[in-house]
Amino acid sequence: MTTRNLADYAPYRSSSPSTVLDEATCSIEGTLPDYLRGGLFRTAPAIFKGAKFAVDHLFDGLGLIYAFELEPGRARYKQRLLASETRRDLLEGRYEIGHFGTDSRRPLLQRILKPIPKITDNTNVHIVPISEDALLAMTESPKQHLIDPETLESRGLFQYDDRLPSAMVMTAHPAYERASRSIVNVATKFGPRSELLVYRQPLGSKRREIIARFGTFNPPYIHSFGFSGRDVVIFDHSLKISPIRMLFSNRSFKKAFVHSGKKESALLRIDLETGRTLRYPTEDYFCFHVVNQFESGDELIVDLIGFDDPSIVDALSVDRLLDGYPTLGARYLRARLSRDAHPVKFERLFSERLEFPGLDRSRREGARHLLAFGASMTSDESGRPRSTLVQLNLETGETRHHHDPDYFYGEPIFVADPSEEKEGAGVILSVGGHLEEERSSLIVLDAQRFEPIAKAIVDRSIPLGFHGSFRRA
After folding, report:
1. Pairing with 208, which of 65, 314, 385, 387 sits 20 to 30 Å away (CA)?
2. CA distance 122 to 140
3. What domain range includes position 83?
4. What is the Cα gyration radius of the chain?
5. What is the pLDDT of residues 182-222, one digit of tens each?
6. Whether the Cβ atoms of residue 79 and residue 17 lie closer than 8 Å to each other
7. Does residue 1 form part of some domain?
8. Residue 408 contacts residue 385 (beta carbons within 8 Å)
9. Is residue 282 part of a domain?
10. What is the CATH number of the domain that holds 406?
């Protein structure tokens, strides 16, 4: 085990995160748009090592919840370390809770009496509004924290009121179905014959309704999915999960992954009205993120970010990250699905390699989009981390870039100008930690011109996170 601490190095450096609320006033460069009133809420893995513990994977860093509160001419920053059961377990050096890439340390008798360990509540992947006065912090587990938007404190775990299995895992990228004002998500139920479950949950309800299911012995690892009203599309790639490898074991979740041995994947198209599933064989890519999907004539178009193989999962281990930030070598891919199942080939629409895709979701999610956004991340020849924000024009094939050599910016989040109807009318928000100094920046880019119009700078090091949401005031 390394003696180095990932949190001491950019872009993972953090400023003494604590379960006590930490607040600071930001300095403003440029002019914040009048309509940018509200909060940008994000999550990040922030602590990787302590006196009695060390985690082995980026996905296992203890979760930080932070926010930038914005209004014209003013920005405030606040952060709080999530007071999770997982945090307490690690601080005490017990390792009794299962993690993504860190082995547990349960004694043999405990493993016999309870074949599967407790599932993590370290919700460090995503945070979304769930009601007028609460947000939901998520990871790929059935445990989700209700977060107070003012104090960033957990109000406890969200309690579902249904009979679905308590141990099934859910993606941290739910879709919003406007017609029914419901959340749609995909869950994986493990067993002798596992199932992929598509469910609907009306806003304000604690009950989930299964609307489609698909049986499989070794389900794929699913981080996100495609959704466009009537259809859900799941990328059934060759990186599978073997439920039997989790039993009576101290293995991390990642060690339950198995490769099917086939150089073929499939897109599973699930009709939400009939439950019918069509399987479209395709090339073998690995995918974290589906960008969007939409109907075009008789075709269903699915855009996703695809890696050539799943080696990125191991590349995000702490030991590997201490040697330098990996190149996120994923490409923007498009598949065209007809009404009948048939083999399909992905089109590579851009030469750019990027991740953390976004778009003007309020106007174009589930519909044809002309603009997409992402972040290109790598290390330069000297090993210095480097990130570039990218705009992709699906109509012209052109790209635009924003790079600041001093900051490592992450996921771009689009916020629409409510007075405009045109796609892309609004701004891109992205948070980046300074590579050398203890400060961070929230950059505001004009989403169409892709040029900076403002920055909110805070004297805190904010670690590179995964996902977040803008919540209007």
Report:
1. 65
2. 10
3. 6-472
4. 21
5. 999 999 999 889 999 999 999 889 999 999 999 988 999 99
6. yes
7. no
8. yes
9. yes
10. 2.120.10.30
